[in-house]
Specification:
Elements (H helix, E strand, L loop, with lengths): L30 H16 L3 H8 L3 E10 L5 E12 L5 E8 L4 H17 L6 E7 L7 H15 L8 E5 L5 H15 L23 H17 L7 E5 L3 H14 L2 E7 L2 E4 L6 H11 L9 E3 L12 E4 L18 E3 L8 H10 L2 E3 L1 H4 L2 H15 L5 H26 L3 H20 L3
Parallel strand pairs: 3-4, 3-5, 6-7, 6-10, 10-11, 11-12
Antiparallel strand pairs: 1-2, 2-4, 7-8, 8-9
Bound molecules: nicotinamide-adenine-dinucleotide (NAD).
């Protein structure tokens, strides 16, 4: 029996063998432990009853699979994959699939928990889930990636589906991968099931506006927050970590639509910085060719991917991975506003430091909920077989994100708490209410 400091309020839960339930790490920086600690704080403020609190601390169910894939050289390689269905009280589980060499079940559990809060905070009728495969997609050929994607669906098909659990793209997974997964699932079912996955290419039932929805939704939230904070976003400077889907789209929207100045971008190979502003389009072109920012002529290069977090700017946009802003570097963050497009980029210790410094924080599951919101629109359009134009998608996204921010802001004012805790109060309350109405607790 292993007991650790992982229970409510940091105390060990009695009679829980954490190794037996597959916690891969019991470290305080483990994203799932962080997710549980965040929930515990909200549960206390909401005075949640014990059964509801315990149900919300853990996934409802999860599946682990071993995926044999024939590699190009003829060998069979066995990959490990997960799907976590955290909570479906408000509707089918929803959440991306990540391909990452350092993927762990705890990261996937944390992300599935955050999906549960995310769908609740934007008030779409979905629950939360997440999937992952431990692999390095940069070393796989297109054929190997396709066979791996299909192998994952063959194992997971029994728990996926429009009414059960609907995946989407996430770190290192693309619309093409969604298309292969949809095709494999449709073959298994014997008919087309476009709505079983979102983030598909447009000709296969994808939605207009899904490509930049995460970044755009974040910008809509930031616009609402900036109005209250009296920050002129057109005159502001921005530093962005991660130049993938979330980060590069954010950079483009900020530069082209808000007129803001992107002074720094941090990527896996380092940070590129120009106090007068980076040419975002030229950087995108460079990044497409090299998969990094090193060698870009329009700025100074620093060989540290976290340098971008500490540079002078008004708005910091972490859009890469979890645990980037920690107790070690939070004191050196100079931004006034933090727009968390990545999931879990800030540890709880860093959170406290930033709150003390007066940084206005727009928490991950609110700030990056634009992606799942347009994914939900995609599911609706697939079910109707009738598709909306880009203007309609953006108008509806704006309405959802604005309403979500206002609900969180109101909770923050009412309870006099920071935005992250306020977002938890809104989301957890909605999920708990659904569980109660269904008679689960
Ligand atoms: P992506 O794979 O398109 O981009 C991630 C980028 O981060 C890559 O370019 C990668 O090279 C870079 N990166 C990886 N490690 C880094 C490091 N240590 N420092 C700097 N850069 C690093 O993924 P994405 O879809 O843009 O997702 C980014 C984050 O946003 C993740 O936390 C993801 O969970 C979250 N998110 C994405 C979506 C979406 O719709 N794409 C929705 C919600 C949340």
């Amino acid at each position: 029996m292993t007991k650790t400091s992982n229970g409510a309020g940091g105390q060990p839960l009695e009679n829980v063998d954490y190794h037996a339930i597959g916690m891969s790490s019991l470290d305080a920086s483990d994203p799932f432990i962080i997710a549980q600690r965040q929930l515990d704080t909200a549960a206390e403020l909401l005075a949640l009853d014990e059964p509801t609190h315990q149900m919300l601390r853990w996934p409802l169910r999860e599946m682990h699979a071993h995926l044999p894939v024939r590699m190009d050289d003829g060998r069979i390689h066995v990959f490990h994959g997960f799907r976590v269905q955290y909570n479906d009280a408000r509707g089918p589980c929803k959440g991306g699939i990540r391909f990452h060499p350092l993927e762990t079940i705890d990261t996937v559990r944390a992300l599935a928990a955050w999906m549960t809060w995310k769908t609740a905070v934007v008030d779409v009728p979905l629950g939360g889930g997440k999937g992952g495969i431990v692999c390095d997609p940069t070393t796989l050929s297109a054929g190997e990636l396709e066979r791996l994607s299909r192998a994952y669906v063959r194992q997971m098909a029994r728990i996926l589906g429009l009414e059960k659990d609907v995946p989407a793209p996430d770190v290192y997974t693309t619309p093409q991968i969604m298309a292969w997964m949809m095709d494999e699932y449709s073959v298994i079912q014997g008919h087309n099931e476009f709505g079983m996955i979102t983030g598909k290419p447009l000709p296969l039932g994808g939605s207009e506006g899904r490509g930049d929805a995460t970044a755009r939704g974040g910008v809509y939230v930031m616009q609402e927050a900036a109005r209250i904070a009296k920050l002129d976003l057109g005159k502001a400077t921005y530093s962005i970590q991660g130049f993938g889907n979330a980060g590069s789209n954010a950079a483009r929207i900020i530069a082209d639509e808000l007129g803001g100045t992107v002074v720094a971008v941090g990527e896996i190979d380092g940070t590129i910085y120009n106090a007068r502003g980076l040419d975002v389009h030229a950087l995108e072109e460079h990044f497409r060719r090299t998969r990094g920012v090193r060698g870009f002529k329009g700025g100074d290069f620093m060989p540290n991917s976290r340098a971008c977090l500490e540079l002078t700017c008004d708005v910091l946009v972490p859009a890469a991975l979890e645990n980037q802003i920690t107790a070690d570097n939070a004191g050196r963050v100079k931004a006034r506003l933090l727009l968390e497009l990545a999931n879990g980029p800030t540890t709880p210790e860093a959170d406290a430091i930033l709150t003390d410094k007066g940084v206005l924080l727009l928490p991950d599951f609110l700030a990056n909920a634009g992606g799942v919101t347009v994914s939900y629109f995609e599911m609706v359009q697939n079910a109707y077989g009738y598709y909306w134009d880009l203007d309609l998608v953006r108008e509806r996204l704006l309405r959802k994100m604005t309403a979500a921010f206002r609900a969180v802001h109101e909770a923050a004012q009412t309870h006099q708490v920071p935005n992250r805790l306020a977002a938890y109060l809104v989301a957890v309350n909605r999920v708990a209410q659904a569980m109660k109405l269904r008679g689960w607790v």
